[in-house]
Amino acid sequence: MCTLEKRGNLFILTLTGDSDDDHRLNPALLATILSSLREAKSQATRGSVLITTSQGKFFSNGFDLGWAQSAGSRPESAKRLHQMVQSFQPIVAELISLPMPTIAVVQGHAAAAGFALALCHDYVLMRSDKGVLYMSEVDLGLPLPEYFGVLFRAKVGSVSARRDVLLGGMKIRGAEAVRLGIVDGAHEGEEEVKEAGMRLGEELGNRKLDGGVYGEMRKGLYPELCGVLGLQVGKPVLPTL
């Protein structure tokens, strides 16, 4: 599942499990993540920062396709997959509108919806020695949800990088992800990447940013994404002269 810990201004959201847990996004985990984000939002103050990470060798291996297929019939499996797609969308919306800076510390593999989860954050750090980013939908023959495509257009600036990731199913390691502008830094080892995430979180927290203004500015950067997510982009409040 996941835990939410508050350390000063930092909210640490951790996907938990044993070392072999690939943190598949099933309905129970999706509900817990959403609840944790809303809890952080309710407790946010000036200078708050969210850091999302996980335990073990995976950040997240995406939707729980095993749970979907266990329904038996193909129509029922499709319904379960659609349920997870719908349940993930409000998580994306919460992260895009959250009134604080957000950091994903990707210490292991992030595939499909797990990759998208990392990409929803303002900053993404990953390991250079282990772990890959991978959109498996093209290899599995699964259609890409509309909001996934819009998320990648909003967050990955290079057209060729989006092509290679979404249409080519390219598996991207840390140094290459930095070169492509998908992540902000690659660090050797699990402890190193987590320490880098904490340092960045503390630096952002020390700026004591106004979370409400920050969240509205973030939404303003991604109007198309906000549109498909049902988020209203507010008008800026002009200072009185």
Largest sheet: 6 strands, mixed
- Percent range for β-strand residues: 15-25%
Please, what is the CATH homologous superfamily?
2-enoyl-CoA Hydratase, Chain A, domain 1
Q: Note poorly predicted spans.
A: none
> What is the CATH first-level class name?
Alpha Beta
Large-scale geometry: globular
The gyration radius over C-alpha positions equals 17 Å
Proper CATH architecture: Alpha-Beta Complex
Per DSSP E runs of 2 or more residues, the count of β-strands stands at 9
Q: Fraction of residues in helices?
A: 40-55%
In what order do the strands lie side by side in the largest sheet? 1-2-3-5-7-9
Number of domains: 1
- What is the CATH topology classification name? 2-enoyl-CoA Hydratase, Chain A, domain 1
The ordered H/E elements are: EEHEEHHEEHEEHHHHEHHH
What is the averaged pLDDT score?
A: 94
**Structural class by sheet pairing and helices:** alpha/beta
Helix tally equals 11
Termini gap: 50 Å
Protein name: Delta(3)-Delta(2)-enoyl-CoA isomerase
Keywords: Lipid metabolism
EC number: 5.3.3.8
Catalytic activity: a (3Z)-enoyl-CoA = a 4-saturated (2E)-enoyl-CoA; a (3E)-enoyl-CoA = a 4-saturated (2E)-enoyl-CoA
